[in-house]
Amino acid sequence: MDGNGRWARARGQMRTQGHLEGLKAAKRIVKAAADMGIRYLTLYTFSTENWKRAAGEVNFIMGLVRKYLRGELDFYRENGIRIRHAGDTTGLPPDIAAELKAACEETGNFDGLQVILALNYGGRDEIVRAVRRAALGGTDLASATEATIRLFLDNPDVPDPDLVIRSAGEFRISNFLLWEGAYAEYYVSPVLWPDWTEKELRAALEAFGKRERKFGGIVP
Ligand code: IPE
Ligand code: MG
Q1: Is the CB of 194 within 6 Å of ligand 1?
Q2: pLDDT digits (tens, 9 = 90+) for 23-33
Q3: Ligand 1 binding pocket includes 112 (Cβ within 6 Å)
Q4: Rg from Cα positions in the chain
Q5: Would 219 be classed as within a structural domain?
Q6: Does 16 fall in a domain?
Q7: Inside any domain, residue 141
Q8: For 60, phi and psi rounded to 5 degrees?
Q9: CA 91 to ligand 2 center in whole angstroms
Q10: pLDDT in tens, 31-66
């Protein structure tokens, strides 16, 4: 979800205003995805690198996350949305970690769209933590396979993404789902995240529908 800052600057507003509008866009897209019957949606909300930003901006984003987790339970219930987390919980402010845990538990039985909040998430960090967890649990890493590593990722039961979408026109992965996205289709839209509506999501899915996926093989 990129482009909040640019959206605000284009209007002579504070970056925080862009994040506020970005949250509204996230709600629109979550609702649209749930209505379309999409099963999994991972939102790259805050990366392990985003801590480099000014404290005021970081605190504002964390405040939004806290409010969103706490205030949307009715919305999750009505739409059967299950909230999950990807990322390093230990590096999160304790109140956010607690709020996240509560939201995950309270929505744990909902069987609609699963929204995975990538919060304090980095793809390399996820792999490093997976290897550490495996070692701590006594796994024989010398004979590790891809399946071994996968087992220790943050959400091993969530299938690899079919489609990775980036808003705001940048052709970068920015440390997102490095392991899981190995064979994902990538889609970059020039539209800044706060301007995203169901229309942009549909355009992304339409483009995805035209891709020829070969997973390293050849099409017969
Ligand atoms: C939002 O967009 C992404 C978050 C880290 C929440 P940005 O804040 O990166 O927006 P730009 O790139 O400055 O436009
Ligand atoms: Mg950005």
Answers
A1: no
A2: 999 999 999 99
A3: no
A4: 18
A5: no
A6: yes
A7: yes
A8: -65, -45
A9: 21
A10: 999 999 999 999 999 999 999 999 999 999 999 999
